[in-house]
Design a protein that fits this description.
Length: 338
């Protein structure tokens, strides 16, 4: 729970600092005086503004010319649109709404004296991102502005208790991007490239760095890798699976499982572990008595270790014998002799 609260607090601070420009632009949609001046072409400069892409649906209005206006114009797979009276298709992809409006306006000057064109993005469909793995609300998101990793994870509810320390971002080369968003695929990865980030660096308030909090690109798949697990079974109070987020020793694992029960064979705790080649298992027998007496090292458990706490047959037999021979002894009241 502390991890989740900490995550949400840091996400809120990061959203305020990192997304301030985007927020100001969204307010500009209401306050006319804050709208940035038209940009003729934004193909090579993302600069935090939304760039139109294939699949987006536009609402294009030509002032006082309803016959030329179009309420629903979908950007085709080539990034092009068509408008009445204009013979050639118009490139819409990798442009801002204001840049496209200026382009359409210039084309209509052949037919109109002072054409005034406005472009609104009616449906955002060109910049999907997917969040999967150890996240509270996995799903597909349509980005309407520049989003960084921490903010995207906050929209997805933050990491679960099963989240490990690593985050994988896989870039999909099949998704069309503007030049400024382009990435080079890694060798041996023809379908995309993969980047890795550490959750602790992303959440750190002491050494925040944009390198640890990258901009999410269209088509990215963000995967919060689940922590490796260890298993505690047998004669313990709470047999359980433990997420291995940090190094855990045998005694720590047993404590998390509520401790060992009576009749436990303390000098024969079994730890089943995969061999180095992964094809077989090896069994380690650990003396818990020696560890408690500081005569043996408390071993550090590895991913997928199975800790089995066995009960002693001899101890169980003797206790059962005593209870059967003198069952009433254990229920007699205790009196203090002054």
């Amino acid at each position: 729970m502390n991890l989740i609260l900490r995550f949400l607090m840091i996400a809120a601070l990061a959203c305020i600092g990192v997304s301030g420009l985007s927020f100001a632009q969204s307010v500009g949609a209401v306050k006319a005086e804050e709208i940035p001046p038209p940009v003729k072409d934004n193909t090579d400069d993302f600069s935090g503004q939304y760039l139109i892409g294939s699949g987006d649906v536009l609402d294009i209005r030509v002032y006082n010319r309803p016959q030329l206006s179009r309420e629903t114009v979908r950007v085709d797979g080539r990034g092009m649109i068509r408008m009445p009276l204009i013979e050639e298709p118009i490139r819409a992809a990798c442009r801002t709404d204001s840049s496209l409006a200026e382009e359409i306006s210039s084309l209509y000057r052949e037919y109109l004296r002072y054409p005034h064109v406005e472009v609104f993005i009616k449906d955002f469909q060109s910049k999907p991102a997917v969040v999967i793995g150890a996240i509270r609300e996995p799903g597909r998101f349509q980005m309407q502005r520049q989003i960084r990793l921490l903010e995207l994870l906050s929209f997805a509810g933050g990491p679960t208790e099963q989240a490990g320390g690593r985050i994988q971002i896989r870039h999909d080369r099949s998704v069309k991007r503007c030049k400024s968003m382009g990435i080079q695929p890694l060798p041996n990865s023809p379908n995309g490239s993969v980047e890795w980030y550490e959750l602790k660096d992303l959440l750190s308030t002491d050494k925040y760095d944009d390198k640890n909090n990258p901009v999410i690109l269209p088509g990215d798949v963000v995967n919060l890798i689940e922590a490796d697990k260890i298993y505690v079974i047998g004669n313990v109070f709470k047999p359980m699976t433990i997420a291995l987020k940090e190094p855990v020793t045998l005694t720590q694992a047993l404590a998390m499982a509520g401790g060992v029960m009576q009749d436990t064979d303390l000098d024969k705790i079994s730890v089943s572990r995969r061999s180095a080649n992964g094809n077989s298992k090896v069994e380690l027998i650990v003396d818990l008595k020696a560890i408690n007496k500081k005569k043996a090292e408390d071993i550090v458990l590895k991913p997928n270790d199975i800790v089995e706490v066995r009960s002693s047959r001899a101890k169980r037999f003797m206790r059962g014998l005593l209870e059967s021979v003198a069952p009433g002894i254990f229920r007699l009241p205790v009196r203090i002799i002054p």
